[in-house]
Amino acid sequence: MNELTPELLALSARADAALARALPAETQPPHALHRAMRYAVLGGGKRLRPLLVYATGLAFGASLDRLDSSAVAVEVIHAYSLVHDDLPAMDDDELRRGRPTCHVAFGEAMAILAGDALQALAFEVLAADTALAADAPAHLDMLRTLAAACGSHGMAGGQALDLAAVGQRLDAVELERMHAYKTGALIRASVRLGAIAAGRHDADTLAALDRYGHAIGLAFQIRDDLLDIEGATAELGKTAGKDVAANKPTYPAILGVEASRRELAALTASALGAIAPLAARAGHLADLARFVAQRAS
């Protein structure tokens, strides 16, 4: 499936509404910073990470109200990471989701500040959720989970490995490590947050969900790499062919296109296998795994 189901689209709309409420209003000072923050977050996107929070939490019986803060937090972190990734010192991109990137629209300094403020906002939103406060150890675990996904063994570490790898020839293990940090860490965290918010703390369940998250995180990156060489800028909403032009290590460059497609299929099968014991309760998670592998943008 290369499109989200109606049920997932409804959850995506819920995430959009929750994000709009959580972000500071443009009418509040500092106005330029708040405009940049809202621009970075509300300018479209697949909302995959909030959908993973909702899908996992619903599989274990959580109410949507109990999942909103985690859904907002992971998407705000994702948006901050894109703002910083697009900066001239990083990936130096001028197009994101079909619009000028944040630093193009607001200036480099304001984009840096917007990213900083978004990261702080994510933890503020999650920490302030009174519905989670009754179980303090679980609430703390959720905050720790989100923090770990952002740090040196998460997105920041993955970006550091990515920068160091430009022009280098990585092997498949090194490439997987880089993307397990840069892309996969927040995806795995999204799944775990949904489970913990639903009251699931048992090791076997969390391990199975981590296998699912790990598989779709890598699958997401492989699909991204394939789209970078097969897609068009208008369809992708970002500059097509940029990774190849920048001589960055990608799955097609290292494994080859056909081998990358086979690995994508194997990862999708692994993700579906990890959640198979949940049977019908995992319907949304299964749909998301297939969407990640087949999406057109």
Can you give keywords for this protein?
two-stranded antiparallel sheet, globular, 16 helices, 71% helix, Farnesyl Diphosphate Synthase, mainly alpha, single chain, 297 residues
Q: Explain this structure to me?
A:
It contains 16 helices and two strands. It is an all-alpha fold and 297 residues long. The protein has one domain: Orthogonal Bundle (Farnesyl Diphosphate Synthase), CATH 1.10.600.10. It has a two-stranded antiparallel sheet with strand order 1-2. Helix 2 (31-42) packs across helix 6 (108-127). The longest helix has 28 residues, at 203-230.
How would the blueprint of this fold be written?
Blueprint: H1 6-22, H2 31-42, H3 48-59, H4 64-85, E1 95-96, E2 99-100, H5 102-106, H6 108-127, H7 136-150, H8 155-165, H9 172-182, H10 184-197, H11 203-230, H12 233-236, H13 242-245, H14 251-255, H15 257-275, H16 283-294
Antiparallel strand pairs: 1-2
